[in-house]
Amino acid sequence: MKSLASTIASIWRLSIPYFRSDDRWPGRTLLAAVIIIELSLVGLQVVLNLWYNRFYNTLQDHNWNGFVGAILFFCGLAAVYIVLAVYQLYLNQWLQIRWRRWLTQTYLRQWLDSANHYRMQLLGDAADNPDQRIADDLAMFVDYTISISTRFLNSVTSLISFAVILWALSAAAPLKLFGISLSIPGYLVWAAFIYAVIGTALTHLIGWRLVPLNFQRQRVEADFRFNLVRTRENSEQVAALRGESAEREGHLNRFGAVVSNWMALMWKQKQLNFFTQSYSQAAVIFPYLMASPAYFSGLMQLGGLMQTASAFGSVQTALSYFVNAYQDLASYCAVIDRLSGFEGAIDAARAAALASPSIEVVPREGAPSIAIEGLDVRLPNGKPLVEIDRIALHRGESVLIRGPSGAGKSTLFRALTGIWPFHAGRVTLPLDAKIMLVPQRPYFPVASLAAAVVYPGKAGMLDDKRIADAITAVGLLRLVDRIHSEEHWNRVLSLGEQQRLAIARALLHEPDYLFLDEATASLDEPAEAKLYELLHTRLPGTTIISIGHRSTLAAFHHRQVELVPHKTVYRLEEAALAAAE
Fold first, then answer.
1. CA 480 – CA 540 distance, rounded (Å)
2. Superfamily grouping for domain 359-580
């Protein structure tokens, strides 16, 4: 019961925000329409149940006129049922896509908010494969929520409606066994109830393992798909290293987990299906067994027997909701657990950015430069990396940061640009300052070259002439004719060409502070020199802060600072700064 209450609370927490959102009135209207149609369909089933009595009695009495009237009435009933059933599906699908659209927008906003996605990875990301949770789990959540809840509503209303009919039929035709009349009020209702309770208990006993198995299935499937994509994205390096055999072995091992999970699901579903199919087949004859004594004793006509069987079947089906929907409920619970875990990971990443102590990046009006005070950069596990007592990065100057590999230079850049919150310190920067970080491996979206080079700006924000000029200036003249071609540029271009294109992006965006994290390391020294000269010429007011190991880089920077080991951390000591200045 505690687990059930927790699951219901999770469903409420995941569902209710949409019906309070900006799209609440269309959502509420569609939901109300779906519910009204569902109740109407139950009402039609009640009318059809009453029709059974009339129809089979006309057959028993050889009443031709009554038979024709019953057939015509059924045709009208069927026409109404068809219209309602079609529109129920149509409105259901309309509600699904609106709800899913809102959930997708909301989860994407939360996931991609202020580097949350990056912090989730740094914290270990308890929510594996966010892409799958947004693309697949949200769709399944909406589908299951609507279908399971409407089926539950159908079961409740059918139970109430047909239990009343069945109770009345029990009174009209009391139970008679071996010539003895047994006075049990509503015995047909109680028989259906006992039958369903036994079935429900046995179903749960057999199938409870389906919930964790379905959860695991989503995980191993996503892991397998994700690693296939990684191989495709890095196919050049795999081919260069002759890594096909290792990749194939890794993929087969991950697919082995898929197969193992699938076999466990097959075994458990086979056990559950044996029971549920047996239960369903027994349910066909069970109402006749219960009502047959009254029929054969003459207390009930054929129409009454058929009506009783129909009403009994409806009550038994309603009470057996848990049995019939168990596999869907198991999948639904797995989806809820995955989305709850995803929300928890988002909240944890957001909390990490706000936790105290943390590295604060504070925009301040009138600040003349980036000022760093008492900076203590650490790994998420608390291991110290870099300490800086005080340093200022002035407008228009260029600073080269040097230090041994593993000293934490790239992590320092992440802290200065506001995406690394661990551990403490303050970075003050001018209000509305434009900051750009160019890593050694730049990222380009799958889009036209023009859209890729102006990213994260919107396509069309700059005219083609200006984009072509920047691409030409960085030595990629051959790409000018392809600025409207849509490609996967991280795969089409070499790493050196990608680094040139990243410098073109910096020229177009004209940042106030440009952080270059070995951003030209894949180019030869003459090409690197031309790009630095280009940056100084085109962006004279930009502060350039570089990480690099080549001695030739010193010629393009006004200052050099060095991370030096000090006990368990690397520090920018005052003496080193003074010497560099």
1. 25
2. P-loop containing nucleotide triphosphate hydrolases (3.40.50.300)
